[in-house]
């Protein structure tokens, strides 16, 4: 197994970013809740303590047994992590006179400190704190300051341990990447050999061992995650992998045919299963988003189960689950509230007697794409916008009917084709259209119309966890709106969604 850095999460919104930055250095790392510290083996090379919305001054603040960790591996505290170290060693932490959010500049830097090597005086750093470390206790010394914060960074004089008040993981901290490199590469001595090639090699070996001669059924969606997962498992067990692509009647226009076509020549054993009627029957009369999601999830499992029985002796269900799915379900304070029931998480029904194999559950989406490139998967699959498993079913607000699906397929087609024709598709992280349960009055050729309203949504994101709406050119929106209203029967009004996530989500249901 690869060398790794462990990040203990105290609930900061930036914890995932720290992980991304470390991984960009070709060093593997894992995030664990502070309350569930894993056993350290020889592969663990360093420890990072994240920020937190909490304060060390509050009672029952998130806490760890630092003494048990000090000296084992180098430790870096970031923001709350730094405050926690200073606090536990007897330092004074107080609410700052001015809360510092946003940019600051380092006015003093001890460049002899290994952590601060090549970090320049004047360098911009990003702050986000209300507490401040007033004085460092004995055993710690200050190695960087800003005009308003004397203890912007410190180092232990006795142990390999550092703390920084600012956030090196955000792109707005100029030398943040240098600082993390100093920690991970120079201090923790990680060898930077965690590359997509190595990942593929190690994962395929691991899968061979785990799966042996077993049969595996995998839900293949035409999307990035399940395609990459399928190729990895295929490399390990070849023909024992049975890929099932389900037409749930909620796919995009021509998607069933196009996806089956795109898998030709990849060597995968892919079976298309048309189960539209089962999905429509399960959705009939349902209007609540969670009820709809659960019904769709249930039918997916039924279809996979039926296919597995037809093959016989199938022990595993393969899935394209990725790291953010996993992190979201193990938040700091126990399981997070359910915003939406994703159809593929939450485990399998007892009676299925299948185990789950998820080779991508430690990777972020962009890393999955990089692994896909190593596996020489076609760019048309790797570059595809994410598309939710419940498909148009959660983009048709209210009850779902075959006719509404047909209308939305047409709308979606004009929007996506428009993006491609205008060269905008690759600049948008995800785009789609929602059919609203609203009718509006219009006038077409002097006649009154009373028809449906659709909302277009296009977002910029890195991993779908947060997103902003795309500022698509007005001319483009005008053309797409025109195309849709003139050519899709049943729609007489188009609106554009300008909500970010949070507080909205990407899908409307
Ligand atoms: N139509 C489908 N047929 C079979 N399996 C599906 C289908 N839609 C989704 N799945 C399964 O559900 C999982 C989750 O879907 P999800 O949309 O998150 O991932 P993806 O489709 O692989 O990638 P992307 O996020 O790029 O769309 C997939 O990895 C796949 O295993
Ligand atoms: O496979 C999936 N099954 C689901 O049940 C599901 N729900 C949302 N999504 C996709 O996840 C990302 C974040 O979506 P939200 O902001 O709507 O939660 C977006 O990319 C959504 O398209 C799903 N994908
Ligand atoms: N970003 C952080 O870790 C903030 C730590 C602490 N809540 C503060 O306000 O100072
Ligand atoms: Mg998908």
TrEMBL record:
Entry's EC annotation: 6.3.5.2
Molecular-function GO term, any one: ATP binding
GMPS ATP-PPase domain segment(s): 194-384
Active site: 79 (nucleophile), 167, 169
Catalytic activity: XMP + L-glutamine + ATP + H2O = GMP + L-glutamate + AMP + diphosphate + 2 H(+)
Keywords: ATP-binding, Glutamine amidotransferase, GMP biosynthesis, Ligase, Nucleotide-binding, Purine biosynthesis
Pfam family, one: GMP_synt_C
Protein name per Swiss-Prot or TrEMBL: GMP synthase [glutamine-hydrolyzing]
């Amino acid at each position: 197994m690869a060398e790794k850095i462990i990040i203990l999460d105290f609930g900061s919104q930036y914890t995932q970013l720290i992980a991304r930055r470390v991984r960009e250095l070709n060093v593997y790392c894992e995030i664990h809740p502070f309350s569930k510290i894993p056993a350290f083996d020889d592969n663990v090379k360093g420890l990072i303590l994240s920020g937190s919305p909490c304060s060390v001054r509050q009672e029952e603040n998130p806490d760890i047994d630092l003494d048990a960790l000090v000296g084992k591996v180098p430790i870096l505290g970031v923001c709350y992590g730094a405050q926690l170290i200073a606090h536990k060693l007897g330092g004074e932490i107080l609410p700052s006179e001015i809360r510092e959010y946003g940019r600051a500049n380092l006015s003093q830097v001890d460049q002899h400190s290994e952590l601060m090597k090549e970090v320049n005086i004047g360098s911009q750093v990003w702050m986000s704190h209300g507490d401040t470390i007033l004085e460092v206790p004995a055993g710690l010394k200050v190695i960087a300051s800003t005009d308003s914060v004397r203890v912007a960074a410190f180092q232990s004089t006795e142990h390999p341990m550092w703390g920084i008040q600012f956030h090196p993981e955000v792109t707005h901290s100029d030398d943040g990447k240098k600082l993390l490199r100093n920690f991970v590469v120079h201090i923790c001595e990680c060898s930077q050999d965690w590359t997509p090639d190595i990942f593929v090699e190690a994962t395929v070996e691991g899968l061979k061992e785990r799966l042996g001669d077993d049969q595996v059924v995998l839900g293949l969606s035409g999307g990035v995650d399940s395609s990459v997962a399928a190729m990895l498992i295929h490399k390990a067990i070849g023909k024992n992998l049975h890929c099932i692509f389900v037409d749930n009647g909620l796919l995009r226009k021509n998607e069933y045919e196009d996806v089956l076509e795109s898998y030709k020549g990849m060597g995968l054993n892919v079976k298309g299963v048309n189960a539209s009627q089962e999905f429509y029957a399960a959705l009939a009369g349902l209007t609540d988003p969670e009820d709809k999601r659960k019904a769709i999830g249930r039918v997916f499992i039924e279809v996979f189960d039926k296919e597995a029985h037809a093959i016989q002796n199938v022990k595993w269900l393969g899935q394209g689950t990725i790291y953010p799915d996993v992190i979201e379900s193990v938040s700091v304070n126990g399981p997070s509230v359910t915003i939406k029931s994703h159809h593929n998480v939450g485990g399998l029904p007892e009676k299925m007697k299948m185990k789950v194999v998820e080779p991508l559950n430690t990777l972020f989406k962009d890393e999955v794409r990089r692994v896909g490139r190593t596996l020489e998967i076609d760019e048309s699959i790797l570059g595809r916008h994410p598309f939710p498993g419940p498909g148009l079913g959660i983009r048709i607000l209210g009850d779902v009917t075959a006719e509404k699906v047909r209308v939305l397929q047409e709308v979606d087609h004009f929007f996506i084709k428009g993006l491609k024709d205008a060269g905008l598709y690759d600049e948008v992280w995800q785009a789609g259209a929602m059919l609203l349960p609203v009718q509006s009055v219009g006038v077409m050729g002097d006649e009154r119309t009373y028809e449906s309203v659709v909302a277009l949504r296009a977002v910029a994101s890195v991993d779908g966890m947060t997103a902003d709406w795309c500022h698509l050119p007005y001319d483009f929106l005008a053309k797409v709106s025109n195309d849709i209203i003139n050519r899709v029967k049943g729609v007489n009004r188009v609106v554009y969604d300008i909500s970010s996530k949070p507080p909205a989500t990407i899908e409307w249901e």
